[in-house]
Structure formats: structure tokens, C-alpha cells
TrEMBL record:
The active site is at E14, S164, S297. Its main location: cytoplasm. Binds 2 magnesium or manganese ions per subunit. Pathway: Cell wall biogenesis; peptidoglycan biosynthesis. Residues 120-319 form the ATP-grasp domain. Belongs to the D-alanine--D-alanine ligase family. One of its GO terms (cellular component) is cytoplasm. This is D-alanine--D-alanine ligase. It catalyses: 2 D-alanine + ATP = D-alanyl-D-alanine + ADP + phosphate + H(+). It is an enzyme of class 6 (ligase).
Amino acid sequence: MINVGIFCGGYSSEFEISIKSANMILDHLPKDEYNAFLVRVNEKGWFADYKGETLEVSPIDFSFVLESGERIVIELAHVYIHGDPGENGKLQAYFEMKKLPFVNSSALSSELSFDKWFCNQFLKGFGVEVAESYLILKNSHYNTELIGEKLGFPMFVKPADSGSSYGISKVYELEDLQNAIDEAFAEGNTVVCEAFLKGTEVTCGVYRNSEGIHPLPCTEIISESDFFDYEAKYLGKSKEITPAGISEKLTSQIQELTVLIYQLLQMRSLGRVDYMIVDGKIYVIEVNTTPGFSKESLVPQMLDCADISIGEFWTEIYEFERKQFGI
């Protein structure tokens, strides 16, 4: 059996969500094919949960030693960290340099898709519709009145370089804009202010196996909150409809666009693209290379709708990645 370390945790506010996602994946992997275990990442190091022991993993040769003296070497890494240092491509860059095979998009793809502003501007260059936006750099000069005049109210204010659901605000009045920007900067080093799109929110998963790239059924999101924030995502304060209650034509267009974005960003493994449909026009909100995969998450709902078991899903992805790496 191949030793698989599922890297989770990380440095962002979504540490615990990442652990839930990783455990969900671990619980469904076939035990007779993969010797899989969690590797929790925090600012003190990497720590494997292995047969009741917690053991520090060497970043040099990706091994750890049990109390019995047995040495385990990670042969395949699965990066499932929401935020820094996984979703933003840092671990992938290190693994690429050290030639450790991994499951997730490449460092370049992850870093580009992770930054909401850069990703949307990149896609805009290929004719993909995105919301009007304004980028603010840390310690730079900006004028909230001019931002308000450009984008109008309400608007969204988000940390652009953070995979977290924290720090996102929907701002209705100019007097609240500065506080929203400050909250976003608490989660990231750049902030994007984005024009509000009023319409139907839809998301679509996509993945690659040996047979090609496959879009999953679309999910429509109706949030009980003012928007699809942390509580709506993870605390059940949203209604999620799979398949989405949109026309077959729109569904097909979104699935085709999702596959195109997957290709343009040179993504691998699993991805998810979030959209807003306004008067029949499809706008990209953001791209996720490490979408949530806990029981409350959207992709497992899409898989259930497509009648794909979670174990089968990840096994197909793993087998494709192993062929690419020759392991």
C-alpha cells in the first residue's frame, strides 16, 4: 500500500474546517489500497496522526518514526489546507521542488486562483464576466468616497489574498466602508472591493480522472444570512439546492465554463467555481482549488446528486495523479 499524508490545518482562521474536510476524505478512502493519515500543519511544524500517535514529520525526507522504531515515509501528499500555506500554493511549491508527488493543483495554479482579484482579472482577459472591482494594497492611499462612486452600494469587501470566509462584509453605506476594509485587512494583505451582483448564486464542482475533466451538478445557494458567509457555509444558515433550480441551458453553460476555467488555470484534482447569474448573464465570483469537503460542504452534495461515492471519487483522482507522477 502507498503511504498518503493528507495535509490539513494551516495558518488561517479555517484551521478546524480543514481538519473536518481532511477527516471526511480519510474516512472514505479504501483502507486496502491506501495507508492514509492526517498531517496537521501549524506554525510549529507538521504532525502526523498515525495509529494513536502524534509524530513530527520531517520536511527534509517527509518521514516520521513511531515509538516502535518503525519509519514511515510519505509517498503521496494530499494538500487539503483552506488558506495559507496550502490553498495559496506554498506547500505545492515546496513539494514540486522536493519532487514529492501530491494531489491538488500546482503551485502556480493555486497561487493565481487563491487571489480573488488577480484570478478574476486573469479570467477577464479571456472574456469571462466578473464583477467590477477595486484593489487596495496594504499601507497604500485610497479614497473611500471614490470607491463608493465607482462601485455603488451595496458592495462586497473581501480579503483578496485569503482563502478564509472571515473578513468578508457586505457594505450598504459609505460610513461603514472603512471599517469593512479594516476587517478585511485583518485577514489578508490586499483587499478587493467588488460591485454587488443581484441574482441567483450557483456553484459548480469539477475534477479530472483518467477519462478527462468532469463538471459536477450545479448547486444553487439561498443564504439565510445577507450573503454566503461563514455561518451560511458552515453553520447551516443557507439552503442549498442540488441540482440547481435553473434551466438546462444555463446549467450546461455553467458546466462548460467551469471546465474552461479549470483548463485556463491549469487546475488539477478537485476544484469549484462560484457564480452569480444576473438576467441570464453568468459572472464568476471566485475559484476554489481546495473547496470545503466536510459533511456540510457543497461538493459532497454534488457527488451524491451525481451518484458518485466519495471513496470512488477520490480513488479515481488518486489513480490519475499516481499515473502522472509514475508511482
